[in-house]
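Intended use. Records like the one below are meant for learning the mapping from a protein sequence to its folded structure. Do not use them to infer anything beyond what is encoded.
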Amino acid sequence: MVSSDASRTDAVLPKTIVPSGIDDPVERARAELKAALAAIEVKGNLPRRAAEATERGVARAKTFAERSPVAAAAAAVSVAAAVGVAIWGVARIVSR
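Structure written out for the chain above:
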């Protein structure tokens, strides 16, 4: 049976961390395996990582736009122009 202190510790720790204070070698090995598998899942889940990075980028862009709307508009125009030039360049290369 798990004590209330251990369950509170598990709730606070990320799932990729092995909790300290495990004396039983079998329980320790299970906890290490569970943490290793969780770390592999976190590291290998590329769609989730991409979605989180996109969310962070959108949040930064919104903050930047709120602080400096003119600079944000200029950045948006610059990015749109760069994408347009890149597409034009690729189309020109393909058409030759």
